[in-house]
């Protein structure tokens, strides 16, 4: 299962266990500020983070903290207003196939069959029809999707669409995979399976992964390290290493190590989520919410 | 997905009915047959039967109104009866002159429509992609769009050296704006995540237009083509009636001048049939070009 018949000089030909040497993500003093009618607002301010080659790193944080903004900068869709974003020492200049991206929304082309979707990146590289069909078939076979190769995405379930999306992003042999809450729209069961599929592929390919989520369990289960972001303007609040052994089984989430990590991350996130809600829910209000009416209805309790 | 799940509501709808009929028979058997029968026999056959019935009622009403020469403010006394029209259709179909008229009209439609599609679709795609182009072209389009194609007839005759070209030009104008506007509308509704996904996979500008924007816009383009084809016929018939020498519109108008009343109806029916056939043809092409939407 280690060899993938693609031209992937680093990842496939490195023997198992050797650390990959490419795919280092480096974000330094990242800031993004945009103009609104009310003046300039900072979406993200002075974030620095790194992902070592072959590492799986997650970013969690309250909604609107700019996690997706940084992925978009890495993908090349936007430029930071301050700081640098670089891969293997090279600053990012526009989108490219060396960085695969998976979106929360299903992004398969509905007018292409599953195989044509997987072929898309190869087609953009100018690989001829027969060769890209062969490569796409091989990849779909490895992902267990062979029997769907001629179906249109509309005929697939949500989880299946994301699996094809992952295969499509990997087909061009990227050094880096960026995932923006990819399983957010899936039900809990499908989600668990998708997480295992993703870790499995990541371990086989040894590429660097930056994974954005707001699901703490997901972040712990998948990652080597987790960055916690603050509420807007987004900054790094904490960096938590996840020293859990791999391969990780679903039962892991019941272990005490997992739960300890979860508790720590929970409290970090909770502070920020409360802040993100703009002080709507402060401690006083929480006390109010905790008031016990002892079975009476509100009118009589008042 | 929708195609696969289509039988489910039918199954549900028919299940209670068949269950109450069977009343104690082995449950589960025969149930799969019920939705199939209802799907194949009830829906398409029923609608086909109703279409035939509605057409038959129309012809019957026409027949009664004309044979009894009904005269209630609206005067049916000079209107040809269905059998008159059938008789003149027999003579017309036996002569080559009628087919020449039909052929000329079809040729004009084809030229005008194809040129309109060939200009409007790429223009719409580019206008949707590049804001400057849209801002430059859109005001002109907005001013010209409300002018009915018939109003262009005198101008078209002045503009073009031959009559034939001016008629094709008017047909072109009629279909141009619906195609352009629908293409533009389609471009505005392209899912941005698909564009981003394509760019992440290494697609550059030309590939984006060809591989993402065009196929994503095709459903609206085909709406525009269908509407444009309808307007093209309206414009063509008007132009032929005013300035033509051939064509089915000219045939209809000439029949009026020559007091050949049954030919008027024949001309009208032919125009209707040709319009129907051309919109059917566009639908068929649409299915060929968008095989993925057939599965929905």
Verbal overview:
Chain A: This is ABC transporter ATP-binding protein. Chain A: Belongs to the ABC transporter superfamily. Chain A: One of its GO terms (molecular function) is ATP hydrolysis activity. Chain A: Keywords: ATP-binding, Nucleotide-binding, Transport. The complex is a heterodimer of chains A (about 300) and B (about 300). With about 300 residues, chain A is α/β, with parallel strands linked by helices. Chain A has helices at about 65-75, 115-125, 130-140, 160-170, 190-205, 215-220, 255-275, 285-290, 300, and strands spanning about 25-35, 40-50, 55-60, 80-85, 90, 100, 175-180, 210-215, 225-230, 235-240. Chain A has a single domain (about 25-110, about 170-300), classed as Rossmann fold (3-Layer(aba) Sandwich), CATH 3.40.50. In chain A, the strands form 2 sheets. In chain A, strands 6-7-8-3-9-10 form a 6-stranded mixed sheet, with helices on both faces. Chain A has a 4-stranded antiparallel sheet with strand order 2-1-4-5. In chain A, α6 packs across α7. The longest helix of chain A has 21 residues, at about 255-275. Chain A starts with about 25 loop residues before the first strand and ends with a helix. The relative contact order of chain A is 0.16. Chain B is mainly alpha-helical and about 300 residues long. Chain B folds into 2 domains: about 1-75, no CATH class; about 80-295, MetI-like (MetI-like fold). In chain B, about 80% of the residues lie in helices and about 0% in strands. Chain B is built from 13 helices and 2 strands. Chain B has helices spanning about 1-5, 5-20, 35-65, 80-95, 95-130, 130-145, 155-160, 165-190, 190-200, 205-245, 250-255, 260-290, 290-295; strands at about 70, 75. In chain B, α4 (about 80-95) crosses α12. Chain B is globular, with a radius of gyration of 25 Å. Mean pLDDT of chain B is about 85; it is low at about 1-40. Classes of the chains: A alpha/beta (about 300), B mainly alpha (about 300). The interface of A and B includes residues 101, 105 and 111 of A.
């Amino acid at each position: 299962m280690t060899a993938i018949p693609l031209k992937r000089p680093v990842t496939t030909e490195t023997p198992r266990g050797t650390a990959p040497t490419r795919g280092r993500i480096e974000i330094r003093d990242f800031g993004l500020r945009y103009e609104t009618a009310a003046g300039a607002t900072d979406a993200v301010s002075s974030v620095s983070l790194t992902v070592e080659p072959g590492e799986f790193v997650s970013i969690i944080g309250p909604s609107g903290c700019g996690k997706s903004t940084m992925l978009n900068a890495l993908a090349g869709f936007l430029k930071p207003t301050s700081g640098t974003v670089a891969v293997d020492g090279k600053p990012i200049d526009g989108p490219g196939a060396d960085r695969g991206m998976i979106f929360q929304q299903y992004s398969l082309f509905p007018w292409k069959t599953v195989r044509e979707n997987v072929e898309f990146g190869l087609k953009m590289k100018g690989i001829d029809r027969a060769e890209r069909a062969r490569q796409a078939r091989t990849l779909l076979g490895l992902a267990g999707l062979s029997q769907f190769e001629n179906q249109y995405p509309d005929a697939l379930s949500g989880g299946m669409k994301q699996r094809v999306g992952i295969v499509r992003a990997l087909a061009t042999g990227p050094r880096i995979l960026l995932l923006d809450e990819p399983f957010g729209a899936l039900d809990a069961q499908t989600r668990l399976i998708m997480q295992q599929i993703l870790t499995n592929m990541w371990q086989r390919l040894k590429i660097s992964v930056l994974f954005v989520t707001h699901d703490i369990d997901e972040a712990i289960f998948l990652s080597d390290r987790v960055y916690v972001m603050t509420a807007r303007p987004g900054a790094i609040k904490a960096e938590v290493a996840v020293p859990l052994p791999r391969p990780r089984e679903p039962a892991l989430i019941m272990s005490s190590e997992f739960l300890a990590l979860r508790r720590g991350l929970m409290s970090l996130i909770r502070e920020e989520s409360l802040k993100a809600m703009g002080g709507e829910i402060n401690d006083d209000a929480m006390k109010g919410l905790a008031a016990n009416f002892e079975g009476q209805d509100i009118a009589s309790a008042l | 997905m929708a195609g696969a799940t289509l039988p489910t509501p039918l199954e549900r709808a028919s299940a209670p009915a068949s269950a109450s009929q069977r009343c104690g028979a082995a449950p589960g058997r025969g149930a799969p047959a019920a939705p199939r029968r209802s799907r194949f026999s009830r829906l398409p056959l029923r609608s086909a039967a109703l279409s035939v019935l509605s057409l038959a009622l129309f012809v019957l009403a026409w027949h009664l109104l004309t044979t009894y020469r009904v005269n209630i403010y609206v005067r049916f006394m000079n209107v040809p009866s269905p059998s008159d029209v059938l008789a003149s259709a027999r003579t017309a179909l036996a002569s080559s002159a009628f087919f020449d008229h039909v052929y000329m009209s079809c040729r004009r439609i084809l030229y005008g429509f194809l040129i309109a599609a060939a200009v409007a679709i790429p223009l719409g795609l580019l206008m949707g992609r590049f804001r400057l182009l849209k801002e430059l072209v859109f005001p002109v389009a907005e001013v010209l769009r409300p002018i009915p194609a018939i109003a262009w007839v005198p101008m078209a005759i002045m503009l073009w050296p031959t009559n034939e070209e001016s008629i094709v030009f008017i047909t072109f104008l009629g279909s141009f704006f619906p195609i352009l506007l629908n293409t533009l509308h389609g471009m505005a509704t392209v899912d941005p995540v698909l564009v981003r996904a394509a760019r992440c996979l290494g697609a550059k500008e030309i590939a984006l237009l060809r591989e993402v924007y065009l196929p994503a816009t095709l459903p609206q383009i085909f709406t525009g083509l269908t509407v444009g084809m309808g307007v093209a016929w309206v414009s063509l018939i008007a132009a032929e009636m005013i300035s033509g020498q051939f064509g089915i519109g000219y045939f209809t108008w000439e029949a009026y001048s020559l007091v050949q009343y049954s030919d008027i109806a024949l001309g009208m029916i032919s125009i209707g049939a040709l319009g129907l056939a051309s919109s059917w043809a566009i639908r068929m092409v649409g299915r060929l070009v968008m095989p993925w939407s057939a599965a929905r």
